Amino acid sequence: MSLPAIPQRKMIQNSAIKPDLGHGGLKIVRYQTDTDAQKAYINNEFEFQHEAAKRHIINGVTLSLKGSPGRYRITATIHPTLRQFIDIVRYDPSAPPLENWEAIGMKEAHEQTQSDFKGTKKENLGHFKQYLVESIRGDRTAYLPTVSGWQSSEVFGDTIFVAVDESNPMALYGMLYLPKKPVMQSDGQTQTAALFQAAATGLAEKEEALDKFGTTLEIELNVTPVAAGQSFADRNGRGSKKNKNLVARMDSSSALSQLRAKAMAGTIFEGRVADGRTVGATETATNKIVDLSTLDQMLLNVISRGTKKDEQIKIYHIEHFLPYCKEFLTLLEDKFGDKWLDLTPKDSEPYRRLYIHGWAFALKALAIVFHDSRRDELGPLASAINTAGGGDSHQTAKEAQQAFLKAVENADPQQPKLTPAELEDRIDKIDWLRYRKHWIDLTGRKVASDGKPKTREIKVGTDNDGRLITKLIADGKAENTAAAINFAVNKIEGRSWTDLTSDVDAKP
Question: What φ, ψ does residue 220 adopt, rounded to 5°?
């Protein structure tokens, strides 16, 4: 028996590919500009083309030089599906694959740059996962930042790039042959962990999100543990914290932002909410009644006494909570709107200098009392809201809404602490002037630099001859703290609420 003649073709070994000094020594096959390399690649003559078990073959990659010459960082930007992201990254930061990253020298960098998923960070992970679930379900558009990751210098020698477009020497385009080793995060750790969790949900399977949900991943190549630590420090140690009001203003897709817009439409709050780009709601800036973050917290207090976070409010909740949120804002307008003047009249004072109800802590307290006055209706709705990482991760929008309604139906009944009529009666009878003794006793007084209690002279109008009348008052605090909010709630709801009706001033 004779064997057929098999053509023999010499394979181009990986070691024969010259490191590109302009790209930190990365092995680059110049498909566009090297005709011999192009022919060899087309004919599958390169060794790496036959090592699919060792490398991810990633199309549509931009290989970039970042930074300045002499200290260029080499990054590869890719656009994987959810399934590809999980397969490429391999490394869930909330559950590290110890046997992998220890083996390639990543342990030191992990200890320097990756914080444990505990406390608030663990809770935020649950919220981010829910954000992804809502995006997969179609409740919102997914605006995900690029995840920045890196791969160890230990495997850089096995990384190969095939350049099919070299028109921009700073950003080559082509195919990346990336070693199948973990990719750690220098920025986007919580998002990465959330993507891993979202990929494991039943919803991802039902909606075919594993192969249809897109992400963006930037992988820095040839990174040492020291460089990884410096990258982490540079990314997290500079700049300022996000402006919560500006973020809230820009967020139009979340359920809470939609609820807020619908609740304040047609009320005194419309157009008079500070959003991070305008003057805030300060003692003398009277155009804005509250800022966005305060208004959101007020609505969350109406919904749940503040026990739920904005990420936990879903699109299918809006129709159930909107009537109550609208009623609360309308109540505030009816009771205080005539005092919340945009322009302060001559010979008078800005309303926040005069009244407690102009301050965030008082409005948040009133929102809680409002909830308590309608607890028989709001209590079951609030208790049915899933906590972080809740069971709706595996449900379609319709299934999640049905589960919510079922939970409302099965919720324990709750009794109001006071009736809506009693709340309105108390609001009408309470004296809201800041300098009354009952408010100074509750909020405390401002203290001057010499340690003495502060006083303030305020304008209270004019006499019959048009001369200005002033009054010396105790200058009270209006701190937006949990303690101040709780004190106000307990007093307004309590048996001694009539103490707040007194017209006795605090001693200046």
Answer: -85, 135
Euclidean distance between CA atoms 368 and 300, whole angstroms:
9
Q: Which residues are paired to 184 by β-bridges?
A: 150
In this prediction, residue 388 carries a pLDDT of: 41
Answer whether 149's CB lies under 8 Å from 219's CB: yes
Q: What is the DSSP string of 143-204?
A: -PPPEEEEEEGGGGGG-EEEEEE-SSTTEEEEEEEEESS--EEEE-HHHHHHHHHHHTSHHH
3-state percent helix, strand, coil for the chain, nearest multiple of 5: 45, 15, 35
pLDDT over 90 (residue 221): yes
* Per-residue pLDDT tens digits for 7-51: 566 899 999 999 999 999 999 999 999 999 999 999 999 999 999
Query: CA-CA distance, 287 to 423, in Å (whole number)?
Result: 27
User: Residue with structure tokens 């006499």?
Assistant: 463
CA-to-CA separations, 43 to 12, 38, 70, in angstroms, rounded: 11, 9, 36
Match 């009392």 to its residue by tokens.
369
Distance in angstroms (rounded) separating the CA atoms of residues 283 and 285: 6
- Tell me what the mean pLDDT of segment 123-131 comes to: 86
Q: Note the Cα 478 to chain centre separation in Å.
A: 28
Please report the pLDDT score of residue 471 as a whole number: 93
The predicted structure's pLDDT at residue 225: 77
* End-to-end Cα spacing for the chain: 115
Pull the structure tokens for residue 338: 């005539």
> pTM for the whole thing?
0.68
Rg over CA atoms, the chain:
31
Residue 189 has pLDDT above 80, yes or no: yes
Q: Are strands 26-30 and 160-165 parallel, antiparallel or unpaired?
A: parallel
C-alpha distances in angstroms, 270 versus 91, 342, 368, 384, 505?
A: 46, 13, 22, 30, 34
Please, what's the largest Cα pairwise distance for the chain? Answer: 128
Q: What is the DSSP string of 470-503?
A: EEEEE-B-----HHHHHHHHHHHHSTTGGGGG--
Using CA atoms of 392, 394, 396, 401 in order, give the dihedral in degrees to the nearest 10: -20
User: Strand, coil or helix: what is 75?
Assistant: strand
Closest CA to 439 of 483, 366, 494, 491: 491
**Cβ atoms within 10 Å of 482's Cβ, excluding its own:** 11
